[in-house]
Amino acid sequence: MEDFEREKELKAFDETKLGVKALVDAGITKVPRIFHHPHDNTKIASQSEDTKNYAIPVIDLANIHQDPCARKSVVESIRDASETFGFFQIVNHGIPVSILNQMKDGVLNFFEQDNEVKKEFYTREPKPFMYYSNIKLYKAVAATWKDTFLCNMAPVPPKPEDLPIVCRDILLKYLNQVKKLGNVLFELLSEALGLNPSYLRDYGCADGLYAFGHYYPACPEPELTLGAVKHADVVFLTVLLQDHVGGLQILHKDMWIDVPPVPDALIINMGDLIQLVTNDKFKSVHHRVVANLGAPRVSIASFFGTIYHESTRKFGPIKELLSEDNPAKYRETSISEFVVHFTTKCPTVILLPPVVHPFPAPTIKPLLLMLPSHANWMLLFAVVSPMFQSQLSPNVDCFIFVKSLTEKELVIMKKTILW
Fold it and tell me: Rounded CA gap, 406 and 177, in Å?
C-alpha cells in the first residue's frame, strides 16, 4: 500500500471515532490492509507435544497474612515465577469475585454503549480518561485489532465527573482494590528478594497507577492481524484481569506460551523497571494478544508506574542486591528519561547480517538507501532503553535488525518495534 493511500485509510478510520468495533458491527468479512501484520514464525507451545513445561504458575495467596508457612511458600513460588517466566496468576487475592465480574462488565458496557455517547470520550490528547483505537495508529507498521480506554488513577486520582457514567463507579472501586493488592504484591516481591517487606513500596514502585481497558472484537481473519503486538511493559508491575475468551501469550524459550483464563484469577507480570531495580533477577518478558474468530474479548490491565506523571526521582539497581559478583548492570534513570530513551529514534545505526524476509513496508523506504541492493527484506527497528545502554557503546542508541531475533539476542535488545 502506498504511503498516501495508507495515510488516507488511517485518517478515515480514526475520524469515525468508533474504532475496530464499528468495522465488525458493519459486517466486514475481510480485515482491512491497515491491520495486516507480518507473519511471525515463532513456535507456539500449545502446538508442541510437551506442553507441561510451559504452564504459567497459578499461586494461591490464601492465608498469607495468617500463616507464616503459607506466606513463605508463596514468596518462594513468586520468586521462582518472576525469575523464570516473569508472569504468574494469583487466586484468593482478596478482590471480591463480584467486583471482578462487575469490572469486566464495565469494560464491555463502555465499548458497547451508544456510539454518540462513546464518541464524546474519543481523543488523542492527554486527559484523565481517554478513549481511542490504536494510540500509535499513525506510526505503527500496522494497526491492532482492539479499542482502548485509559484511566489515570494515582498519584492524582480522576474526578468522578471525568469518567463515563456507564463504568464510573466500578472503575474507581476496582482500581482502589488493585492499589491495595499492589501493596501486598510489592511486599511479597520484596521478601522474595530477601529485603524488608516494605522495601519496594518505600522505594516508590507503588506510587503511580493507571489502567487500560481493552475491547478485542471478534475478527473475520485472525491470522492476518493481532490484538496486541509483541511488547513488554515499561512499568514496575502489571495486574491484568481478563475474561474467559483468552488470547494472551508470553514469549518463553523462543516459544509463544498461552496464558489461559483461570476463573477469578488475576495475571501478574514483571515490567521493565522491576527488571532494572532487581538487576535482572526478575524478568520482564515479551507478550502479545492474538486475534480470535469467536466472541469479543475484554480485559483491563492496571500498571504500577508513573509514566503519565512527571517525576525527577531516579531508579537504579537496588544496592542491597549488588555485590562484587553481581555488579550493577544498569545506570540510574528517571522514569521519564527511561521512556524517552525507549521511544526516541536516534541517528546512530548498526546493521546486523541479513536474512531474507518478505518486505512490504514502504514507510521505511528511506532506510533501504542505507543497505546493499537486495530485494525482499523486512526491517525491524529497535530502540535501546537505558536498561541496556550500559552494555553498549555510549554512541550507539539504536539498531536496525534485518534478521529474526532469538531469545538470547533479546537479552541485549529488549524491545523490537516494527516501523
Answer: 38
Could you give phi then psi for residue 224, rounded to 5 degrees?
A: -95, -15
Asked if 233 contacts 303 with a C-beta cutoff of 8 angstroms, the reply is: yes
- Looking at residues 155-172, what average pLDDT do you find? 96
Dihedral, 404, 407, 409, 410 alpha carbons, nearest 10: 100
What type of residue sits at position 328?
A
Q: Are 210 and 157 in contact (CB under 8 A)?
A: no
Q: Which three cell numbers stand for residue 7?
A: 495515510
For 268-296, what is the mean pLDDT? 96
Is the separation of the CB atoms in 234 and 305 below 8 Å? yes
SS (H, E, C) the chain: CCHHHHHHHHHHHHHCCCHHHHHHHCCCCCCCHHHCCCCCCCEEHHHCCCCHHHCCCEEECCCCCCCHHHHHHHHHHHHHHHHHCCEEEEECCCCCHHHHHHHHHHHHHHHHCCHHHHHCCECCCCCCEEEECCCCCCCCCCCCCCEEEEEEEECCCCCHHHCCCCCHHHHHHHHHHHHHHHHHHHHHHHHHCCCCCCHHHHCCCCCCEEEEEEEECCCCCHHHCEEEEEECCCCCEEEEEECCCCCEEEEECCEEEECCCCCCCEEEEECHHHHHHCCCCCCCCCEEEECCCCCCEEEEEEEECCCCCCCCCEECCCHHHCCCCCCCCCCCEEHHHHHHHHHCCCCCCCECCCCCCCCCCHHHHHHHCCCCCCCCCCCEEEECCHHHHCCCCCCCCEEEECCCCCHHHHHHCCCCECC
**pTM of the predicted protein model:** 0.82
pLDDT at 306: 80
Q: What integer is the mean pLDDT of 134-147?
A: 95
d(CA 110, CA 236): 28
C-alpha cell of residue 331:
545506570
Q: Check: CB of residue 360 under 8 Å from CB of residue 339.
A: no
Q: Is the pLDDT of residue 99 over 50?
A: yes
Q: What is the mean pLDDT of residues 248-252?
A: 97
Residue 36 dihedral angles phi and psi, to the nearest 5°? -75, 125
> Which residue, 174, 143, 152, is CA-closest to 35?
143
> With contact defined as beta carbons under 8 Å apart, do 229 and 418 qualify?
yes
- Residue pair 279/332 in contact (Cβ under 8 Å)? The answer is no
